[in-house]
Amino acid sequence: MAKTIKDERLRWVLPIVEQEVRLVEVAKVFPYGKRALERWVAAYKQHGEEGLEPRSTARKTQENETPIRVKKHIISLRKQTKKCALKFHWQIKKEGG
User: Fold this and answer.
1) Which of 17, 76, 7 is nearest to 26 (CA)?
2) Which residue among 29, 85, 87, 91 has its CA within the 20 to 30 Å range from the CA of 46?
């Protein structure tokens, strides 16, 4: 049994790449979808073994994240006014901003 995900994928892809068996034949016994197998074979052909490493599908950035310049500005204002975050929030809300 394969110890890593990459080893497992390599076990399915190598016979196809080395033309020992056809992709259609492997897809019949493949526990995942045919399209996944096609993607793995393409990744192996393009990038070699490193192409079979699992990649994260998580977002790299937050969609609604406050820009750094705004954060720095708020921190400098808090230092000037010597107010806590909650009081500063109330002040901004009162001013309409």
Assistant:
1) 17
2) 29
